[in-house]
Write a structure and sequence with these properties.
mainly alpha
């Protein structure tokens, strides 16, 4: 059964700011419309320096998430436990590690 909760109520001035922030994120391509059966409420939190921060409340979704018993191995653990030959897997892992540290748009 999907987790789906209705949005929180919001005052009209904050709702205008909320819609502006969401539209900006849509235009930038950071978010996109979804047809997922899952839904979590989003709301605005005031920043110390003024303005607002957009926050999504995933607490109820996280409460229903089943976590793995064992953590994923790190790249170092996979490379050490792998074969001594430079296989396609280790090559792929090295590329992933390199791409992870790239700064896009800098």
């Amino acid at each position: 059964m999907p987790v789906r909760y209705s949005p929180y109520s919001c005052a009209p001035p904050k709702l205008a700011v909320f819609k502006t922030m969401v539209n900006d994120l849509l235009e930038q391509g950071v978010v996109h419309p979804s047809k997922s059966p899952y839904a979590s409420p989003a709301f605005l939190v005031p920043k110390k320096a003024g303005g607002f921060r957009l926050v999504v409340d995933y607490r109820k979704l996280n409460a229903r998430t089943v976590f793995d018993s064992y953590p994923m191995p790190t790249i170092d653990q996979v490379l050490i436990s792998g074969s001594m030959f430079f296989s396609a897997l280790t090559y792929t892992l090295l590329i992933i590690r390199f791409v992870y540290h790239l700064q896009v748009g800098a």
